[in-house]
Amino acid sequence: MTRRKLVVVGNGMAGVRTLEEMLKLAPDMYDITVIGAEPHPNYNRILLSPVLSGDKALADIVLNGHEWYEEQGIRLLTGDPVVAIDRAARHVVTASGRREPYDRLLLATGSKPFMVPVPGVDLPGVMGFRDIADVEAMLATARSHRRAVVIGGGLLGLEAANGLHRNGMDVTVVHLLDSLMERQLDKPAAALLRYALEARGLRFLMEARTRAILGEDRVRAVQFEDGLEVEADLVVMAVGIRPNIELARAAGLHCERGIVVHDTLQTFDPGIYAVGECVQHRSTCYGLVAPLFEQARVCASHLAHVGHQRYEGSVTSTKLKVTGIDLFSAGEFNEGEGDETLVLQDPAQGVYKKLVIRDNRVKGAVLYGDTLDGSWYFQLLREGTDISGFRATLLFGRHDLGDAGHGDETRVAALPDDAEICGCNGVCKGEITTAIAAKGLFTLDDVRAHTKASSSCGSCTGLVEALLAATVGQGYDPAPSRKPLCKCTEHSHDDVIRTIREQELKTMAAVFDFMEWQTPDGCHACRPALNYYLLAAWPGEYVDDAQSRFINERAHGNIQKDGSYSVVPRFFGGLVKPDELRAIADVADKFQAREVKVTGGQRIDLFGIAKEDLPAVWADLGQAGLVSGHAYGKALRTCKTCVGSEWCRFGTQDSTGLGVRLEEMTWGSWMPHKFKMAVSGCPRNCAEATIKDFGVVCVDSGYELHIGGNGGIKVRTTDILCKVDTEEEVLEHCAAFIQLYREEAHYLERTAPWVERVGLAYVKQRVLEDAAGRAALVERFLHSQRHAQVDPWAERARGAAAGEFTPLRIAN
Amino acid sequence: MNDWIVIARLEDIPRLGSRTVVTDTLTIALFRTRDDRVFALRDSCPHRGGPLSQGIVHGTTVTCPLHNWQIDLASGQVLGPDEGCVHAYGVKVEEGLVHLSLTAHQSAA
User: Fold this and answer.
1) Pick from A236, A41, A215, A224: which is nearest to A138 by CA?
2) Distance from C-alpha of A381 to C-alpha of A213, rounded to nearest angstrom
3) Cα separation of A486 and A481, whole Å?
4) pLDDT at A797
5) Is residue A555 less than 8 Å (CB to CB) from chain B?
6) How confident is the model at residue A536 (pLDDT cuts 50, 70, 90)?
7) Confidence band (pLDDT; 50, 70, 90) for B109?
8) Are residues A593 and A665 in the same domain?
9) Helix (H) or strand (E) run with residue A554 in it
10) Does residue A311 belong to any structural domain of this protein?
11) pLDDT tens for residues A21-59?
12) pLDDT tens for each residue of A733-749
């Protein structure tokens, strides 16, 4: 079958994006020829402003280099524009007389700047702001001349003015109306913007109508209707764009302001499609990038013969690309009759936010100074979400829901997966985080290459970087199950956990062997993980490998930065006897503890103990009946309690007694990560049970069980698991929950991210709904505890693992 | 020329583990690999002085327990991307006895 011929007129963003989308769907359907007027490969036209202002280099904004066309087998003809379309013969004719036949023709001819028809508009030094040649001409002029006038106070005009100013020119912006960017901003936001730009040194001439451009062989000044003249060496016209329709009109295609297209992006000749700024769709011409990309997706599906999509128009949003000025606008930002507005104004901080609400739905937004939530509001706007449930906090943004105040990174982390990050390319958070995890992306360029996010206007770059940091930089990985455990293996945590059980692998050597580890000994990352997985899978059978334990767990103390250790004995439920306190005080004296501190977990920490002294310290503490607190381990740590009904006038249950029972049942248990518990005797929650891995809040009628909380870098409050009536049920649910976590979580994954990864519903199903399963979990936990509840301090005080604590000595 | 001192029996050092040797002036960490080779480094990470003897041994590398710097046991060189070096002492194992030299550098393997 011979391939059909597709000719694309125009080598800009819309045309090439259509090809990219089409090649994904039907890579072999067409022989493709692209004919571009400019002598460049496809570049990112929206980023001309940053090139002008010096924030980016020309090379940075090339989207598809020549090699891309070669790889895709696309013929690229530049510098020889198409001058005619012969629809009957189905070919296009170029300026040099070349004829290119087509089966399908795609017009992506773009637009050109509208030049106000005043005398002198043809003088050298008067130009639009549209392509690389314009930018080069402006930069060249800025090197030799000082004064510039920009006609047009819209988005493009202001970006041009800022760029010229950054290049050292004296810039006056001339605007016909009394308010800047009137198509995107209401008056208060426009005033803030003007103030900020004036502070940078730009001058504004408002409500000024240009009468003529004066000069002999080059522009000298701009003259206005009121007779005022402003001297100028450069005049940039930025009052709007006009679709390039001459070619289409000459070929007899129906045109109005633009080339008229249907919802399928077909012109009135069904063999000819058109996309981008040259088209007029449902009476609208678009000059922004997001609609062009939406058009490209639909057009590509029809070209690839999988066309069932329709383009039904775009709701657009705008961001100004002037470094240091954050501005966002979308929808109907000027309220009509019957609309409500929510306004937040903080002039000192330079923040202004306005939302226009109609029938409890966002109809428009203007944000100045803080635009982080622009994409959220835009999403609410497009999806017509009913905001009555969170109207009170709407203006403060999505990030105030559950944010602990850690800046952009946490704010981004709090966004849901379907939140749009890149408005230009329609890329959601979930796509980005999935790509980062699945493809091991580490740099902004990687993310741009794989997802296209932040590759167009760049205004979401900060968000993408925060997302990258949040995803790669923390152990808080939203999709860790697919990542290799470490560099020693291709296998993920889940693979390893499953294989150890299924294949009954009971030694580390067996795991290395069966799972084809790529290093003979593993590394400091995988060995502790494997040691834990084996220990959890085969209690009583697997022999713990001390050399695969992190030093704290090998030495049963917390190593400090000077190499000394700290010692924390266990206080069950936070209770301690006078004799035990005396023993602690004696030990502190005898072994010269350099500091004694009460911990957050209601215990006492002795600092500055030499490693050599540890067994003797433990022997003395053991004499008083104290055992290891496992404060050093990925293990059951503490059960914090309040005094409860024994003493407190508000207490509803014996929270201290229950805490002691919980800790007695669970102490000594090794876990994927540290595990903390608490019991509060009433809903005042003095024991802070709602930020613990397992928390109990006593109420008059029973016990609320909470799971999956933690303090730390990213605070997470618990989810409620259920409410039970008796202490026995508390113990049962606690044991089942712990065992599920012990068996299924990844090593070094706290319960908070684990619960978020597997979902609360899953945990409830396993621990609540499946009663037989719960009993089995409890049974396995108690079995494991029979082997785990051996005090490691007592063993070592009696001489076990002596080599660990005794140095070899030589005198010299 | 070299002042070799018999310091321990091979089995005094656990496989993939370490023992410390304390002199009047310094602490040295002895490491034993899976294949019973023994190396000696000054027990102080070039990063923040962490005790290398407390790290996890894998291959001929030890990972410092404080901030996970990785140090080559044979040369004392820090492995990339970090940079640095810690003194490596001469060690030999003969008839199950570990000999240490405080003056010789790492003996030829």
Assistant:
1) A236
2) 43
3) 12
4) 93
5) yes
6) very high
7) very low
8) no
9) helix A551-555
10) no
11) 999 888 889 999 999 988 888 888 888 888 888 888 888
12) 999 999 999 999 999 99
Q: Is A739 exposed, middle or buried (0-12, 13-18, 19+ CB in 10 A)?
A: buried
Residue type, A639: C
* A247 and A105 together in one domain: yes
State how many domains chain A has.
6
Per-residue pLDDT, averaged over B81-108, amounts to 82
CB–CB of A808 and B68 under 8 A? no
B73 close contact with A: CB closer than 8 A: no
Please indicate, yes or no, if residue A48 is contained in any of the structural domains. yes
Q: Does B76 touch chain A (CB under 8 A)?
A: no
Query: Does A147 share its domain with A261?
Result: no
Q: Which of A65, A94, A66, A79 is nearest to A7 (CA)?
A: A94
Q: Do A812 and B30 touch (CB under 8 A)?
A: no
Set out the domains of chain B in order of their start, with CATH numbers.
4-101 (2.102.10.10)
For tokens 């005022």, name the residue.
A228
Tell me how many residue pairs between chain A and chain B have CB atoms under 8 A apart.
85
pLDDT at residue B105, as a whole number: 58
- Which pLDDT belongs to residue A475? 39
For residues A235 and A248, membership in a common domain is answered with no
Chain A closest CA to B7's CA: distance in Å? 7
Q: Which residues of A touch B47 (CB under 8 A)?
A: none
Give the mean model confidence (pLDDT) for residues A193-212. Answer: 93
Burial of A740 (0-12, 13-18, 19+ CB in 10 A): buried
Q: Which one of B48, B58, B97, B102 makes the best mutation probe of the A interface by having the most chain A beta carbons within 10 Å?
A: B58
| Test mutation, B15, B20, B63, chain A, max A CBs within 10 A | B20
To the nearest whole Å, the CA of A798 is away from the closest chain B CA by 19
CA–CA dist A784, A738 (Å, integer): 12
Rounded Cα–Cα distance for residues A391 and A378 (Å): 15
Backbone angles phi, psi at A804, to 5 degrees: -60, -35
In sign, the C-alpha dihedral spanning A667, A669, A670, A673 is negative
Average pLDDT of the residues in A722-730: 95
Cβ <8 Å between A547 and B16: yes
Residue B66 in contact with partner chain A when CB distance is under 8 A: yes
pLDDT band at A811 (very low <50, low <70, confident <90, very high): low
Q: DSSP characters for A664-733?
A: HHHTT-B-SS-EEEEEESSTT-TT-GGGSSEEEEEETTEEEEEES-B-SSS-BPPEEEEEESSHHHHHHH
Residue A368 has pLDDT above 80, yes or no: yes
DSSP state of A399: G
Residues 6+ apart with CB under 8 A from A520: A512, B34, B59
How high is the pLDDT of residue A480? 38
Kind of pairing between the strands at A234-237 and A126-127: parallel
Write out the residue range of the structural domain in which residue A697 sits. Answer: 636-788
Say what the pLDDT of residue A481 is.
40
Contacts with A807 from chain B: Cβ below 8 Å: 19-22, 27
A434 in any annotated domain: no
Q: Does A551 touch chain B (CB under 8 A)?
A: yes
* Cross-chain Cβ contact B56/A527 below 8 Å: yes
* B103 inside 8 A of chain A by CB: no
